[in-house]
Amino acid sequence: MAESDWDTVTVLRKKGPTTSQSKSKQAIAAAQRHGQEVETSKKWSAGQNKQHLVTKNTSKLDRETEELHHDRVPHEVGKYIQQGRQEKGMTQKDLATKINEKPQVIADYECGKAIPNNQVLGKVERAIGLKLRGKDIGQPLEAKPKKK
Fold it and tell me: How far apart, in whole angstroms, are the C-alpha atoms of residue 58 and residue 45?
C-alpha cells in the first residue's frame, strides 16, 4: 500500500480556455507575460456583413438618372381580361377560383398593377377564351388540336 499517494491528484481531462476567453484582452496580456507566442492578425471586414466589394460611389448612384422598375401589365390587357370575364358572367373571385389564384391577383391584372407572369396569363387566356399575349391581343383564342 505504499504505492498509493493520497496527496497527489491526477486530472485526465482538463478543459482549455474557450474561444471567447482565449481572444479576450486579459488572456492575451497573460500569455504575453508568461512569454508565450501570441499571433494577432486583422481580418479583412471581420465581424461585418460585407460580402462583396462596393465598386460604385454612393454619390454616383444618387446621380444616376436611370429608373429601375419592373414592367407592369398594360392597361389594354386588363380591359380585355375584364371584358372576357364579364362576357362569361364571372366575378373576379369566380375567375380566380377557376384558375387557382387569389382574387387579388385578378384585381391587380385588371388594374394594370401586376407584374406579368406567363403562367397566370395562360390560365386566364384559357378561362376567358381571349388572347392576352402576342400581336393579336383581344382576339378569340383558337383551340389547338390535341396531338395523339
Answer: 19
> CA-based diameter of the chain, in Å?
107
> Nearest to residue 121, comparing CAs of 88, 86, 80?
80
Residues 15/20/21/26 CA torsion (nearest 10 deg): 170
Q: The cell 481531462 sits on which residue? A: 13
pLDDT, tens digit only, all 148 positions of the chain: 556 667 777 777 756 666 666 677 888 888 888 888 877 676 666 566 555 555 556 666 666 666 667 788 899 999 999 999 999 999 999 999 999 999 999 999 999 999 999 999 999 999 999 999 888 888 888 766 666 6
Residue by residue, DSSP assigns 102-147 as -HHHHHHHHHT-SPP-HHHHHHHHHHHTB--SSSSTTSBPPPPPPP
